[in-house]
Every structure is written in structure tokens, then in C-alpha cells.
Amino acid sequence: MPVANPEHRLIARSVLTEVWVCRKCYARNPKNARRCRKKRCRSTNLRPKRKD
Predict the structure, then answer these.
(1) Is-contact 46 38, C-beta < 8 A?
(2) CA dist 35 → 4, 11, 14, 47 (Å)
(3) At 17, phi and psi to the nearest 5?
(4) Helices (H) and strands (E) in the chain — how many of each?
(5) pLDDT tens digits for 3-50?
(6) Residue 9 — φ and ψ, nearest 5°?
(7) Can you give the pTM of this predicted structure?
């Protein structure tokens, strides 16, 4: 279901795209993460999510 309100659309886009991705296990992490959230991984090798 598309978001009609422009303010809500900006909030939704930032939540969905401004994340870090672990290079080891490909888990999505919050934008303020310093290491992977997965218990078995805990890698510090993170990259920003691509903005295609």
C-alpha cells in the first residue's frame, strides 16, 4: 500500500534505506550500529545499504 502523505513517505524511506548491512552475514542493522546485531556474527565490517 503506497504512502500518500509526503511527510510520512520521507520517514518511511529513511527507515527502509538508511541502514547498515553486514558484509559477513548480510544482516540489516540500524543506522547507528557499530557492529552486526546477529549473535553469531558480531562483525564490525558493515557497509551502508545501496541506494538503487
Answers:
(1) no
(2) 35, 24, 20, 10
(3) -110, -25
(4) 1, 3
(5) 899 999 999 998 899 999 999 999 999 999 999 999 999 999 999 999
(6) -65, -40
(7) 0.80
